[in-house]
């Protein structure tokens, strides 16, 4: 009997000696699908001279815009850069104290970040420098290493070596294009980590805010709260400075926001005034501290705790003193440090990219972040990453390009060389107020937490679990808990992915002329456009209970995989499918087993004296075809492929002596198609895909091949598509006017229309969608007629 390929060629009029257009609608039916080859895939990975050049050029994104730089961009960058500079100077010194370093290291780190990042950046908004959370992590590392190795390593050497190692690892990940790994860190984990960290940092600053000494602020946050409450009677004059400074910061911001709403025409002005609040408040309290401590030259003898001497210029140059001893000492903290660096930087850059309508390259951002942390220690820098507060201010200030960081670096340089004498009188309580004011903005607001609950209650639980672990143990444990829980949920969802048994419904829609509104649209107009849709028969999609979801056809089962088909969930999917098939169909041979002893143990049948099958079972149809919707399946591993083979074997035994057709819809990945073909599916002859089937049985299968209107090779059409998917056999054999009306011999311009097969004619059991697959099954059943033993 002729194969589908031969019938296709005959229908198209394609002879061995060339093309012959016997049918006006079609030509060239010779498209044969080829399989992807491992050799070609490996050759595609071999770099070419042009590819190498593009790769190295991609490492310096500034080359794409620097030659277009203009005065307007310069003005925006200067304003934004200077604005951030006024913020980063006090913040940098305050965060260095969190890292158990002297204040100047915060300025060194900030300068390096702003100087190096711009050349490698794909985000114009983000600012790399000192941040509260990373500084706290560094401080924890310093304390732990110095306790384990007393008098061996200085705090600066530990922090610089940690930055060097983290930078090298992150740079390597960026250079090999491994930026996708950041996608494994979900939003809920980031929000939980930031909230728990912000709370822990804030309560850790309260003792310094009140001038209380003797409280171990590196304990768990709940212990810090308890110890602080016990020590409240020991509060000093610093409390007056710290509390008023904290109040002044919040009142300043509230007043600027209030005036911005009252004077919308001056909104930009009030924004810039608001961004200067940290610098203005610090300057004000430097003056107050100077009045209180006038004449003091030794900061230890001041009436309130002050910052003390800050060295001028760069006092640290050259590589950090790295050796095996210090490497082994900091090794346990490297994973946590890298995760924190990635979480803050990538989350912030992607967020502001979406806000400002540009796309970042995660791998390139890793290059920028790694390069900054790798070379920062040579000038005294410690681990640095993106800052949320400074990035938000920089974005609102109207930054135009990443070059704005250079102007911020200029402000930092001026502070290092010209203002260090003024820094002597900065009150420590004022710096604590500044830190608390900055980190409290990182706490997730109630509306966002409520959104977690409405979106995914399980992730809402993970959020709070991470927060509580951070508060009652430490920040590092909070990171690991949220990431591990999120990964566990992901694996659970994959393993328990819910497949759907689909039924068909008829969808009626108004024609395009009447689609603007339902008013005035007649029932006749609504009936002009109809199509089939496929919904979950169990109505797990919350579809209207009154919607009439019907079986696609007696004995035809449509199954849609959810979240892929792989070795983790293939058994669950196919077990569910087999159970359902056996619950809605019957064996083809109801008297297959002559005696009770012949029946298998797992299908013992009725007791003696009872009918072998009830009337309800006998009324069921026999199994005829299975349609598998692969639209959610992008790859097929060996275990999943074997599961499909086992399914086919089981169902053929169940339907014996008939052979069950297996059709696949929406198999978009070429390697998944190759895996199916290698497993005996999708081939031109059912004798190939059904092991053991006789030639007579194989010959009754004549699957239909979907075609679409041809266009220019390799091109895609934007906008509404004019192509129509039709069926070769339908066009050739049917006389139904509704079908013929879809296949017109000429297009709108009067030119002959040409149709080509969508998929290879040697893969007739692969279809574009479920509707096409079902149509192929139904027409195949029609052709079987009375010759098919399972047909009723």
UniProtKB/TrEMBL annotation:
Keyword Transmembrane helix (UniProt): yes
Residue ranges of the TM segments: 78-98, 105-120, 126-146, 158-181, 187-210, 269-292, 366-385, 397-416, 452-472
Annotated ranges, domain STAS: 554-681
Places the protein is found: Membrane
Keywords: Membrane, Transmembrane, Transmembrane helix
Region Disordered, annotated ranges: 713-734
Signal peptide location: none
Membrane-topology descriptor: Multi-pass membrane protein
Organism superkingdom: Eukaryota
NCBIfam families in the cross-refs: sulP
PANTHER family, A to Z: SULFATE TRANSPORTER (PTHR11814)
Protein name: STAS domain-containing protein
């Amino acid at each position: 009997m002729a194969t589908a390929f031969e019938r296709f060629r005959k229908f198209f009029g394609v002879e061995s000696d060339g093309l012959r257009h016997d049918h006006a609608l079609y030509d060239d039916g010779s498209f044969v699908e080829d399989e992807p080859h491992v050799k070609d895939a490996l050759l595609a990975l071999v770099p070419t001279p042009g590819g190498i050049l593009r790769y190295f050029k991609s490492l310096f994104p500034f080359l794409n815009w620097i030659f277009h730089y203009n005065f307007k961009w310069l003005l925006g960058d200067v304003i934004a850069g200077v604005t951030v500079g006024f913020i980063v100077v006090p913040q940098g010194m305050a965060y260095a104290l969190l890292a158990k370093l002297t204040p100047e290291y915060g300025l060194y780190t900030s300068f390096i970040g702003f100087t190096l990042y711009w050349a490698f950046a794909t985000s114009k908004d983000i600012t790399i420098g000192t941040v509260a959370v990373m500084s706290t992590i560094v401080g924890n590392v310093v304390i732990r290493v110095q306790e384990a190795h007393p008098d061996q390593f200085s705090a600066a050497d530990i922090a610089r070596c940690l930055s060097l190692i983290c930078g090298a690892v992150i740079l390597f990940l960026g250079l090999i294009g491994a930026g996708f790994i950041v996608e494994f860190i979900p939003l809920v984990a980031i929000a939980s980590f930031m909230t728990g960290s912000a709370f822990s940092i804030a309560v850790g600053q309260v003792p310094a805010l009140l001038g209380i000494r003797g409280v171990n602020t590196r304990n768990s946050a709940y212990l810090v709260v308890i110890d602080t409450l016990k020590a409240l009677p020991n509060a000093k004059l610093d409390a007056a400075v710290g509390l008023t400074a904290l109040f002044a910061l919040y009142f300043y911001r509230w007043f600027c926001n209030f005036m911005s709403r009252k004077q919308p025409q001056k909104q930009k002005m009030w924004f810039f005034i608001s961004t200067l609040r940290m610098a203005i408040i610090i300057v004000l309290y430097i003056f107050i501290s100077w009045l209180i401590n006038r004449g003091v030259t030794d900061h230890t003898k001041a009436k309130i705790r002050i910052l003390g001497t800050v060295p001028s210029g760069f006092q640290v140059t050259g590589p950090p003193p790295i050796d095996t001893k210090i490497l082994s000492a900091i090794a346990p903290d490297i994973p946590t440090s890298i995760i924190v660096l990635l979480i803050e930087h990538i989350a912030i850059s992607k967020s502001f990219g979406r806000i400002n309508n540009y796309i970042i390259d995660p791998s390139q951002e890793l290059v920028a972040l790694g390069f900054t942390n790798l070379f920062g220690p040579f000038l005294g820098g410690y681990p640095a990453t993106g800052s949320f507060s400074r990035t938000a201010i920089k974005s609102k200030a109207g930054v135009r390009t990443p070059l704005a960081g250079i102007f911020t670096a200029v402000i930092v340089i001026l502070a290092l060389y010209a203002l260090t004498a003024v820094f002597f009188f900065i009150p420590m309580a004022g710096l604590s107020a500044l830190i608390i004011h900055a980190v409290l903005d990182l706490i997730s607001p109630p509306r966002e937490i409520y959104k977690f609950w409405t979106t995914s209650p399980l992730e809402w639980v993970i959020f709070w679990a991470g927060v509580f672990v951070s508060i009652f143990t430490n920040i590092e444990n909070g990171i690991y808990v949220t990431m591990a829980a999120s990964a566990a949920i992901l694996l659970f969802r994959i393993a328990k992915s819910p497949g759907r048994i689909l039924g068909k419904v008829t969808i009626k829609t108004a024609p395009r002329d009447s689609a603007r509104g339902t008013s005035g649209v007649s029932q006749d107009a609504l009936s002009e456009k109809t199509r089939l849709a496929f919904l979950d028969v169990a109505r797990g999609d919350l579809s209207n209970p009154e919607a009439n979801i019907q079986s696609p056809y007696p004995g035809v089962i449509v199954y849609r995989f959810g979240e892929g088909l792989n070795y983790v969930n293939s058994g669950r999917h196919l077990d569910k499918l087999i159970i359902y098939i056996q619950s809605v169909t019957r064996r083809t041979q109801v008297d297959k087993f002559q005696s009770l002893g012949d029946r298998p143990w797992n299908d013992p049948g009725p007791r003696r004296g009872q009918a072998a099958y009830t009337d309800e079972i006998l009324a069921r149809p026999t199994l005829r075809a299975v349609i598998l919707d692969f639209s959610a399946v992008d790859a097929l591993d060996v275990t999943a492929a074997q599961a499909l083979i086992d399914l086919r074997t089981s169902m053929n035994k169940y339907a014996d002596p008939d052979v069950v057709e297996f059709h696949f819809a929406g198999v978009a990945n070429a390697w998944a198609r190759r895996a199916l073909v290698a497993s005996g599916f999708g081939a031109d002859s059912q004798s190939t895909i059904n092991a053991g089937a006789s030639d007579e049985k194989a010959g009754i299968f004549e699957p239909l091949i979907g075609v679409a209107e041809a266009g220019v090779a390799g091109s895609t059409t934007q906008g509404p598509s004019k192509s129509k998917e039709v069926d070769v056999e339908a066009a050739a054999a049917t006389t139904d006017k509704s079908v013929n009306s879809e296949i017109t011999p000429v297009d709108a311009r009067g030119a002959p229309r040409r149709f080509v097969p969508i998929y290879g004619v040697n893969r007739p059991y692969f279809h574009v969608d479920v509707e096409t697959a079902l149509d192929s099954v139904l027409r195949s059943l029609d052709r079987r007629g009375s010759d098919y033993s399972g047909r009723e």
